[in-house]
């Protein structure tokens, strides 16, 4: 793979209503396709509904396997590529974050997992497929009155349903924790997701949440098993790996981009968190084979 100065970003600019929808195996489309086997980022959410089939992806250096009756959601900014896909029935849906209401954006930002992968019952899968099929009919009907508004409203409704299924699973796994602790942890994760480059100290996150740093740290650790510092470093190192692997930015430029005034400190932190230096990680990536 030939690296570029910046990671390739696919954008929603040419897609009607900030939405792109396509069933697997559907050949004819009035909207542009793009190269999906090469590592890239989106400035939009992208969702895969697999009713029958299998897909293997790499999302931020983690392998993700989508199987029968599974819903997957990728966040804007994540680096991913499709390794293999043998999909018989299912849907691909991409949508602009701008079409979501504030409540839904907050729900998605507060998900504790970086990768949203939801197993569905046969009934749930059939229901989602039926809903998306109806959406696809409207999407392709140029004569439909209020088409743009209907499409955006239907996508919002679909993602609320996805969030509901995901959060039901999440709540079940967190049932032993007090509701207030879960709420604090989710709020922290949302603030972190949007501010990790500019805010690095646990005390600053605690101040934004109007609580003591010890209370925030104890709460997050009780729910997740990890400290606030751990999550801050993970978010920073995830972005550092993306830039090292898929761009020609120097280590110093990457440190600057992530808000580090001292690139030597960034080097030490990366080496401690990832186990090898930034330079070694980049060299490792240059020798990797990509589809």
From TrEMBL:
The keyword Transcription applies. PROSITE patterns: HTH_ARAC_FAMILY_2. Keywords: DNA-binding, Transcription, Transcription regulation. One of its GO terms (molecular function) is sequence-specific DNA binding. It comes from the Bacteria. Gene3D superfamilies: Homeodomain-like (1.10.10.60). SUPFAM superfamilies: Homeodomain-like (SSF46689), Regulatory protein AraC (SSF51215). Residues 186-284 form the HTH araC/xylS-type domain. This is AraC family transcriptional regulator. It comes from Flavobacterium rivuli WB 3.3-2 = DSM 21788.
